[in-house]
Amino acid sequence: MSSSDYRHPPTCLANFCIISRDGVHHVGQAGLELSTSELVSCVGWTTAEELYSCSDDHQIVKWNLLSSETTQIVKLPDDIYPIDFHWFPKSLGVKKQTQAESFVLTSSDGKFHLISKLGRVEKSIEAHCGAVLAGRWNYEGTALVTVGEDGQIKIWSKTGMLRSTLAQQGTPVYSVAWGPDSEKVLYTAGKQLIIKPLQPNAKVLQWKAHDGIILKVDWNSVNDLILSAGEDCKYKVWDSYGRPLYNSQPHEHPITSVAWAPDGELFAVGSFHTLRLCDKTGWSYALEKPNTGSIFNIAWSIDGTQIAGACGNGHVVFAHVVEQHWEWKNFQVTLTKRRAMQVRNVLNDAVDLLEFRDRVIKASLNYAHLVVSTSLQCYVFSTKNWNTPIIFDLKEGTVSLILQAERHFLLVDGSSIYLYSYEGRFISSPKFPGMRTDILNAQTVSLSNDTIAIRDKADEKIIFLFEASTGKPLGDGKFLSHKNEILEIALDQKGLTNDRKIAFIDKNRDLCITSVKRFGKEEQIIKLGTMVHTLAWNDTCNILCGLQDTRFIVWYYPNTVYVDRDILPKTLYERDASEFSKNPHIVSFVGNQVTIRRADGSLVHISISPYPAILHEYVSSSKWEDAVRLCRFVKEQTMWACLAAMAVANRDMTTAEIAYAAIGEIDKVQYINSIKSLPSKESKMAHILLFSGNIQEAEIVLLQAGLVYQAIQININLYNWERALELAVKYKTHVDTVLAYRQKFLETFGKQETNKRYLHYAEGLQIDWEKIKAKIEMEITKEREQSSSSQSSKSMGLKP
User: Fold this and answer.
1) pLDDT tens digit string along 488-506?
2) I want to staple 34 with a disulfide (CB 3.0 to 4.6 A). Which of 70, 176, 645, 736 is the partner?
3) Residue 55 CA to chain centroid, in angstroms?
4) What is the mean pLDDT of the chain?
5) 195-231 burial by CB neighbour count: b if 16+ within 10 A, else e?
6) Where is the IFT80 second beta-propeller domain (predicted)?
């Protein structure tokens, strides 16, 4: 963190020291020249290296951190005391500006001023009685909200025309923020926070947030979380429904400023002689005590690596975030300086130093590769060789997210999504209408070897699915739609493309799973669990873990829900999760180790059994005998249940019979035996599908093989009377058989026939059970003959 003093004449050296995630590191000096005398009220970044500040001596000053120069942009009239200012947003639909070109400045005389980057005052507008305490552009730059001492909240057009007075109250409004969709406004009202939609009759959300007057609020567009700070000396984190997520301990002085980092992963808190760096869940990474007076305003640089603070004693304080850590297996990577990293191999204590031309913005370590994005380039290191990275130029400097899969990685910047191989080759760039990449995070984007999934922001019930190799929509181009808003998504990482599954948590905290290959029919979304807060797939096999209420749960074979839902509880591992405190989060699931971050920021490592992963490996290689041997060695019901489901999914009924017998599912063993005795392979396939509950698929298999009677019979056995009659009439066979079974069914319950279709076909028809049984016997004989003839013709074809 550095501070530059306005008060001293010409050359004032700024002590740069760094807020780190492990403490504070002083890194030398930089000369920043300027002389003023009053408090600094507000600051804002134009680029990652250029900052503007306003002070009570009416000056607007530009700070260049590269050249360590300061320039006075404009001296405002003596009656203008600046209070707040906000740069016009850079993103304008498809068009991108490289830097902000104008800003709004609010002042104590009741006006706000639209000022160009060069300092020309384009317009001054009378807005409020008394001071205009805050002004904020919405994310699209189409509207401006101002709040004042008069208790009014006003919405203005881009050019400064009054659109509406959104609200009016008796107390001053000290701070305001737009909702992520620019459809709602959050503002303070004494000790209350209020979220008011722009639509006239929409529901207003209001709650008591602090025990003192609330001085500052911020609402992040990526994580949709709200920050508030007040005279009760506390800062708090809320979700967008006003539910408390974090409540800080009281500080010595009122909290005068809070601000989210652009990516929503961190936030900064300012108070008297205090600057604090916090995780989005509330716990502190670092606390610094600079000699600044109160920090009235905090601004994050566009790339999220630096903070600037406007201080009451005439300083501007700067801070850089370093000492971030990334871990994967036996490697630990630390950002030691803005342009340097240290890699430590904990097995042999070997240390490598990585140096970069530009400052590091984002990094990710997974799947034996470290991917680092700087302000201009992307570096890809292999864990086998740290000396020769693949380097390529970035299309746009500010990368906000890096996701990795085994074969490739994804970069997200302000305008697009890019997929690259680990050799640095560009693969694809998926797009969909209305895509906003600036609000994507690791919870709303997921990557596997063949699929990219993105949760839409415009409609949070929708997930867009893309082929990784082409960037085109997956399957028939349909998106995945759910009945509730989706909070977090995750693709499984292993297995065949056709078996790819996606797990997600919805607004009700239900954990659901569904298939991503979608052609024609709508894939079934199946609920796996309730009250799930966080989830993660394993990196080497398709095992899923999650925190469910007060339990930590591992689904060793989630596909069990598609095969035999009855035995799903037997395939789970559960343990008490109360030791992880409130709101823990799963960081990673690598090998057989799950890493969980508790609410206080500490990491907890849980080891799970390695045997299910070995079982997955055997099954994927069709080593069924080895799989059975492993289960006999481990002697756990969980393993046998997983093997039973895996065997049925892979149509290996011999192994399934052994596994079901081991877990005492005798009825299923008997059914599997009956399947084995069926004459044709089509019948066997159909009954295996029936076993898994896939009735339609079973019927289709039988009809395609010409086994119409068998298709009718499975519908009779399942009491699907309408469908059974429909098939009999359509194929002009066994109508009397269906009517006979229907009559027998009704007689058992002492009921009369009321179905009009059945009454119509029963007219004048005599049911002869001897005749029906003979027909059935003939069908079975015919099937047996067909099966034996097809087998003999195959064996003849195999002879030399």
Assistant:
1) 999 999 988 888 999 999 9
2) 70
3) 40
4) 87
5) bbbbeeeeeeeeeebbeebbbbbbbbbbbbbbbbbbb
6) 323-611
pLDDT tens per residue, range 227-258: 999 999 999 999 999 999 999 999 999 999 99
Q: Which residues pair with 217 in a beta bridge?
A: 228
Q: Residue 629 and residue 538: Cα distance in Å, rounded?
A: 24
- 126 in Cβ contact with 112 (< 8 Å): no
Provide the β-strand partners of residue 536. 545
The answer to whether 53 and 61 have CB atoms below 8 angstroms apart is yes
DSSP annotation of 498 reads: G
Kindly state the average pLDDT of the residues 527-531.
Answer: 93
Report the b/e string of 487-498 with b at 16+ CB within 10 A.
bbbbbbbbbeee
Going by pLDDT thresholds of 50, 70 and 90, the confidence category of residue 521 is low
Token digits of residue 80: 């203008």
HSE (side-chain half, CA atoms, 13 Å) at 26: 7
Mean pLDDT of 608-636: 95
* H/E stretch holding 255: none
For residue range 31-60, list pLDDT tens digits in order: 343 434 578 999 999 988 899 999 998 899
pLDDT (0 to 100) of residue 741: 85
Q: Is 726 exposed, middle or buried (0-12, 13-18, 19+ CB in 10 A)?
A: middle
Closest CA to 394 of 411, 369, 371: 411
Integer-rounded Cα Rg, in Å, for the chain is 33
Query: Closest Cα to residue 510, out of 525, 524, 530?
Result: 530
Strands (E), 9-88: 11-20, 23-33, 40-47, 50-55, 59-64, 69-75, 82-87
CA distance 314 to 335: 31
- The reported pLDDT for the residue numbered 18 is 46
Instruction: Show the tokens assigned to 650.
Output: 């892979």
How is residue 401 written in tokens? 């997210």
What are the Cα distances from residue 179, in Å, to 174, 744, 763?
17, 64, 68
Per the CB < 8 A criterion, the answer to whether 379 and 363 are in contact is no
Give yes or no for a contact between 430 and 423, defined as CB atoms under 8 angstroms apart. no
Q: Is 782 helix (H, G, I), strand (E, B) or coil?
A: helix
The set of residues, in sequence order, having a beta carbon less than 8 Å from that of 786 and lying 6+ positions away, is 680
Backbone angles phi, psi at 19, to 5 degrees: -75, 120
The SS3 assignment for 797 reads helix
At residue 800, what is the residue type? P
Q: Report residue 789 as tokens.
A: 């003839």
Instruction: Tell me the per-residue pLDDT of 417-459, one tens digit each, with 9 for 90 and over.
Output: 999 999 999 999 999 888 888 888 999 999 999 999 999 888 8
Distance CA 511, CA 528 (A): 5
3-state SS, 721-766, equals HHHHHHHHHHCCCCHHHHHHHHHHHHHHCCCCCCCHHHHHHHCCCC
